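Sample pair:
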Amino acid sequence: MSLEPLSEQRIRAAAFQWLANQCSLRGSEVLPIDVLRVGFTIDGRLVPLMGPQGIFKPRVLSLPLSITTAPEGPYDDVFESSGLLLYRYRGTDPQHRDNVGLRTAMKQQVPLIYLHGVARGRYLVAWPVFIVGDNPKSLTFTVAVDSPGEQLDDISATADGRRAYITAMVKKRVHQQRFRERVLAAYEEQCACCRLRQLALLEAAHIIPDTEPTGEPIISNGISLCCLHHAAYDGLIIGISPDFRITVDRRVLKESDGPMLRHGLQGLNGQGLILPKRKALWPDRNRLAYRYQLFQENLGRF
């Protein structure tokens, strides 16, 4: 038996708050599948946030709570050039109960959760999302992400523009998080400079920035670094040569300012980079050479 409509609204609000808390606690908008499948408890009732199917409705609700894009299909959900998401129907029958559920959610402008798989068992979460279009011919729904701080019933023209922008930002974060997850997995979730294994402090550093043509979001253009060493690499305070050796700016080597400087930076000079076990995942030497040249040129300016 489902709860009354007012209680359903309360459950959705509780789900959004629970997601916010989980992301805050983990320092990431990417959550593991087991956490999402267990979900949270409200008034003694368990509310999971996802199930085995992409369109998921927990027992306590009358309409779907979440939609999921799996890391490896089977559906080809895509972001449009306009910024919105095209989400595939469940199967090919427009009258399947899951499709009817999303269609009803569209008519009532019921807020949902979107889960996008960025790696096996790990999902980027976005909420609230709204079904804003239905195309039975192409078997797709159009989905827009909105800001958690906006009123959930705001469906004005202004909301359309805002939602398109926010959805486009979600697309960008999906690509960023997919890159991060794959790079960190290649390096066994440790910093390639200092071996730090605190996941909340690890980042995927681009060798060639993603703003440049060759700055592709691929593992060979990435290095797993902690926050400190990522900032130092981007700031050209440390360089990594094509033979995977770390060089520290000589001006930093001359400084004297406590244990962080000595152990966190100066101690790296001349050390080898900690590489993935699979050679195919090692940093690309040509990209490293290009970036190392920038580091050397920066030294020459002073």
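DSSP finds eight helices and 14 strands in the chain.
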